[in-house]
Amino acid sequence: MPRPEAMSVPVRLLDPGRLEPFVGSARVAELERAAAGVRGRLGGRRVVNVNSTAVGGGVAEMLQTLLGYARGLGIRAEWLVIEGDPEFFEITKRIHNGLYGGPGDGGELGEAQRVAYERTLSANVAGIAGAVAPGDIVLVHDPQPAGLVPVLVEAGALVIWRCHVGLDGTSEWAERAWSFVRPYVEGAHGFVFSRERFAPSWVPREQLAVIPPSIDPLAPKNEPLDRTALLDVLASAGLLSRDGRAPHPTVLRRARIVREGEAPSPETPLVVQVSRWDRMKDMPGVLRAFVEGVDGKTDAHLVLAGPAVDGVTDDPEGLQIWEETVALWHELAVADRGRVHLAAVPMDDPLENALVINALQRHAAVVVQKSLAEGFGLTVAEAMWKSRPVVASAVGGIADQIVDGESGLLLDDPGDLDRLGALVSGVLESPAEAARLGEQARHRIAERFLPDRQLLQYATLLHDLLDRAGA
User: Fold this and answer.
1) Which of 34, 76, 97, 300 could disulfide-link 269, Cβ–Cβ 3.0 to 4.6 Å?
2) Rounded Cα distance, 305 and 324, in Å
3) How many angstroms separate the CA atoms of 203 and 211, rounded?
4) Total domain count for the chain?
5) CATH code of the domain in which 82 resides
């Protein structure tokens, strides 16, 4: 049966050789040897990935990169996206927040929600199952398509459930979310989590792989930008003033910006958090910490930037968090509003969006990621790769990326706004320390969080999966 084109995401082939300047020839050669072994084991099988959106958020970004390199290594890698209605994504966002340990919108996850969830996935079964052949390996990403796991297993696929979210401990909300998800995924042939502590006890440890995400140094969000290009991008997007320079529009779509007065000048130090408008990213908390804890006598400004709230189809919470953050901004004194900027960056053109975020991270004096819970935190790795000093919560995968005091600064308690303000102020006041942290940050990402390492781990996972299946 032909694959429905509406559900297939195009993937651009990427030559793994382009990683050599960053990882060295020996690491590229090791990756190519591993890929040759995987090709031999797969035979005619494909590796099919299923998730809920092609744009917006770390999973979509990571799939575009990893599948591009997989194709460049000769692996038949495919990407399919399910469709859902607002009710479905409201339910799956509730599950998402629950797996992070929070109540989300506080709504139910009972029988009515299960019926609605299964109804939406039933509408996707023909397209997804028709695109998968017996023997194919299918990676199902996160809770949204999790209900397809039993159908794919029955169709003869080897199915891996890849969960990108999680909590280091547990909570009543996490237990409730796992109770909802478990019946669908416990029959999978393998499981992948970003941290071992994220995996619930019922996941068989012999079927568990721990694979942290990675970033592509040559993706549009991470590729080098000189200062002239960087300033043009930010001015075109409305995030900085042109400061007397001649107009040279680099991007076509301006961000939706809430601010008092003019845009910051290029010389203004920026404290930046880039995140989805997600309750677990705690944009309002960053705003409060900056206003209350970073001395207004400094000339630093805060920029909270995220995707346009109508640009991420699987996240119904975005508009609510954006509006809550805007409402909090309006409550500030005029002087404080003048140094806090909220930006919703358009998603109409993903490459343009990536360019704006790249420029903003590179221009930042300090990058913050004050997550209340975090699966990994790609924005942390992105900023570290750009040699930015990062101040972030010591939660989830962030704690795996940053060595406190060496490659960044960790906030032990995400709710400690005073401490966050003090850490950010300390970096702003010490350019030498900021430069040291940034240099070590880039080195750590180069060592541990570039695509060759993640692809090698997936190669091991596929071999183990095929061994267990006797294939």
Assistant:
1) 300
2) 14
3) 15
4) 2
5) 3.40.50.2000
